[in-house]
Amino acid sequence: MRLRSRSTFALLTTGTIVAGAVLSTALAAHAAAGCTVTYKVTSQWPGGFGAGVVVTNLGDPLTGWRLTWSFTAGQTINQLWNGTVTQSGASVTVANATWNGSIGTGATTSFGFNASNSGASNPVPAAFFLNGAACTGSVAPTTSTPATPPTSSGPATGVLDQVSTPSRARPAGAGVQFTWPGTYFEGRFRGTGVGFVLNDANNDYVIEVDGAIVGTLVTPGQTTYWVKGLADRDHTVRLAKRTESPWAVGEFDGLVAANGGVILAKPAARSRQIEFIGDSWTAGYGDMSTTRDCGSNGGVTRNTNADVSFGALTAKGLNADYQINAWSGLGMVRNYNGTNPDYNFRTYYDTDLQALYNSATWQVPSTWRPRAVVIGLGINDFSTALNSGEKWATIDELAADYRTAYLAFIGQLRARYGSDTFIVLTYPDLSYQTTAFATSIQQIVKTRNDAGDSHVSSLYYDDTALGLDHLGCDWHPSQHDHQIIAGALTQYLSTLPLTW
User: Fold this and answer.
1) So which residues are the signal peptide here (predicted)?
2) CATH code 2.60.120.260 for 159-263
């Protein structure tokens, strides 16, 4: 990704966010949680400001913590102390340092940072989340924890009897929970109307009936969204998650037919399956925007739609089921600008609910065997210069670790999906920064091919030749670009001897 900083004058701002964990009643059991957050701008200068954050734990003792929030006025953290920070567009995650991970009940921890901002506005973030739980000043009740975490490989119950999904959705009571972008559900009903039962204050969704978009839901909360006035006949429905939420769970509790109607048997899974693995490009980061600065048009999250990312478009064009397993800002071995060196994309690839506090290893069902896996990891590893103090002194050292990790990751996929799955390594133009990315991808493919694995190949996205405009948020691919990339990828897949 390409990010450009902007300078302006910051206003002195102080705010206290009262927060406690408001968890859905179907959420799997965990310790009682609650917190308050005090956020205070402590200094200001033209184009930037300093701030301090104090977190008070109101729930059970913590042995590790992550605080997340979203900026709304283009603020960008440049330096942080007493923790580690990851920022992807407006979304910020601060994790504990090695020495301050424990917070007892009633105890506090604090950190500070320096940041740049654009415009005269510098508002206090509207909400904070501690280990995935929203902070409201109250303590959520403790619920019982099952001996074995439920996974999406178990027998279908409740909503999974109504709808089909290839996504990493974990049964939770009668509903399902999920975090990965692009998660989708498909069902059928007969009648004049249908309701979608949701419990999600973090994500946006798109709803389709008979292939036509009939609604876009923005952080719907706990609600039933109705579509009525339809012809009295059989209909197909689709619910798709547009946004990323690695620290906050979404929940779908099923379909409800309008009076006189009935929910029909769920549609059969498609015979074609594709898995997309990647970063912000794959997640559709800011793809709905027509301007690179999204500070004044709703922010990154409102402008993100994984359902029209190149992966979703490619799969839909091929009538394939798909997964989008992507996380903005994370790389194969190095995250964007070297942030949070203790983890990377591979840390979370095997999880069902990404970084949620009760995430577990995703138990791959026997029904999920994609014949094509498309990987786009490396932009965050190589798009920014190495910083002082990182583990790699040179780009060559970084590239060597990247190749080693990538080869191991391909081996992991081979063990999971078998030798017949085609693995396509994609990469865009980063020659303005380094050629190490492209060279590494080519060497990885050669190494696998030389070892007898002919089903590993690469696809280069030539920005100039393809005519990409990068008008999405923060120089990301726009909707126009995702359509072009989908066309290029579809054409490339047609050259492979895939037997669907």
Assistant:
1) 1-31
2) yes
